[in-house]
Design a protein that fits this description.
binds 4-nitrophenyl beta-D-glucopyranoside, about 15% strand, about 45% helix, TIM Barrel, globular, 3-stranded mixed sheet
Length: about 450
């Protein structure tokens, strides 16, 4: 593979709920995902996050595995209810602070930059009950208070902050389709929740910039997820539908930050269900991200559905399909991952170029990319050539995007190790390290060994 720029950052990513376990140890409060897992049928095999990879107790061992990879950066998330058990900043759980403080120290001692996400979906359960979670009026202020606690305790050492992971998944899967916690089904609540997610991001950034950034000299941004949407045909209606799909997926959350308001096509179609920003909120949101965090996995074809949706579009992952009037499909030639997601590397390049053009060449970090694959451990080894090929071909597409002028600055594989894959429980494995859930033994897969070589080849002086 061609070499990446010298300053390109190589990382892997995880999130708290998916790996830590210790769900009610050392003063941690419950989150909406702890509760969601208790509802029969919501998660494959009714799996829970109670033990997960037990990273809470195996943290040092895991950092050594990262060191073996030659990793430059590690993206993890802080569990809000581990720091603030009832969600509010007036009761801090010192043992929670200690855990993340130790993790950060351990990473730095091994020359690995911590990239810290403040919210990766584990809303304190208390705030779900008391404040309706992301629907509540004061949730954005409560989030900013929590963020301040994190900057105060970790900001001396953490120089890369991500406020919120994937507003689209939080809102569409959590409040639209009911597939993720808190499991609600609505065609209006996703827009209300998304509005508050954006305000929470903006307020947390404002706290950082006003109270900490001058001294701590870090960067702060948000991470959005987006698949690529390719027009199914050359018909102008399908081309317009694909553009609409991109706006309902990514511009919904990125336009307010880069351009100052929601996309016009959403305002036209969603009407009163889409809340309105005040002028001061718009000002707070505009330019509130120091970099463009992007999680990318897959691609779908789009055709215009104005004449009527095929039934599957209403129920699949298109996200508010009836507001967009689009139909999604796949090219039968495309390979699929174990999630059933299409493997289309050129979609990654087109998406990067779309962002580059719409938002005037921001610095982009791919904060997640990777795949679930079914690979078995044979004689102590996992030969995941399919995952290796996925990462390699997606990185080649990234390289092309850089050659075409995209300011892509870094890449984080999802995931450092197999973990709790939300509604799929432990049945889907995204890791470049295998985790044996009986013994909790970690084993580097072929993809991890390959990734270590790649990092080495790209960072050697
Ligand atoms: C992301 N979709 O989630 C998350 O940030 C990770 O926690 C997760 O493990 C990873 O991707 C793999 O799923 C997504 O339906 C979940 O399009 C669902 C979708 C996209 C991203």
């Amino acid at each position: 593979m061609k070499h990446f720029p010298k300053d390109f950052l190589w990382g892997t990513a995880t999130s708290a709920f998916q790996i830590e376990g210790a769900a009610n140890k050392d003063g941690k409060g419950p989150s909406i995902w702890d509760a969601f897992c208790q509802i029969p049928g919501k998660v494959d095999s009714n799996d829970t996050g109670d033990l997960a990879c037990d990273h809470y107790h195996k943290m040092k061992e895991d950092v050594q595995l990262m060191k073996n990879l030659g990793l430059q950066a590690y993206r993890f998330s802080i569990a809000w209810p581990r720091i603030l058990p009832n969600g509010r900043a007036d009761k801090i759980n010192e043992k929670g602070i200690q855990f993340y403080s130790d993790l950060i120290d351990e990473l730095l001692a091994n020359d690995i930059e911590p990239w810290v996400t403040l919210y990766h979906w584990d809303m304190p359960l208390a705030l779900e009950f008391e404040n309706d979670g992301w629907l509540g009026d004061d949730i954005s202020d409560l989030f900013a208070d929590y963020a301040r606690v994190c900057y105060q305790h970790f900001g001396d050492r953490v120089k890369n902050w991500i406020t919120i992971n994937e507003p689209w998944v939080i809102t569409v899967l959590g409040y639209g389709m009911g597939l993720f916690a808190p499991g609600r089904v609505s065609n209006a609540e996703p827009y209300q929740a998304g509005h508050n997610v954006l305000l929470a991001h903006a307020k947390a950034v404002d706290v950082y910039r006003k109270e900490f950034q001058t001294n701590q000299k870090g960067k702060i941004g948000i991470t959005n997820n987006c698949d690529w949407r390719e027009p199914a045909t050359d018909d102008p209606k399908d081309i317009a539908a694909a553009q609409r799909a991109m706006e309902f997926f990514l511009a919904w959350f990125a336009d307010p930050i880069y351009l100052g308001d929601y996309p016009k096509c959403m305002r036209d179609r969603v009407g009163e269900r889409l809340p309105v920003f005040t002028d001061s909120e718009k000002a707070l949101l505009k330019n509130s991200s120091d970099f463009f965090g992007l999680n990318h996995y897959s691609t779908m074809l789009v055709s215009d559905g104005s004449e009527g949706l095929i039934e599957t579009s209403v129920y699949d992952n298109s996200g508010m399909a009836e507001d967009q009037m689009i139909n999604l499909s796949s090219d039968p030639e495309w390979k699929k991952t174990a999630m059933g997601w299409n493997l289309v590397p050129w979609g990654c390049r087109k998406l990067l170029e779309w962002i580059n053009e719409r938002y005037d060449s921001p610095e982009i970090y791919i904060t997640e990319n990777g795949c679930a694959m079914d690979n078995e451990m044979i004689d102590g080894k996992v030969d995941d050539q399919n995952r290796l090929d996925y990462i390699k071909t997606y990185l080649e597409a990234c390289h092309e995007a850089i050659e075409n002028g995209v300011q892509l600055k870094g890449y984080f594989v999802w995931s450092f190790m197999d973990n709790f894959e939300w509604a799929s429980g432990y049945s889907k494995r995204f890791g470049i390290h295998h985790v044996d859930y009986e013994t909790l033994v970690r084993t580097p897969k072929a993809s991890a060994l390959w990734y270590a070589e790649l990092i080495k080849a790209n960072t050697e002086v």
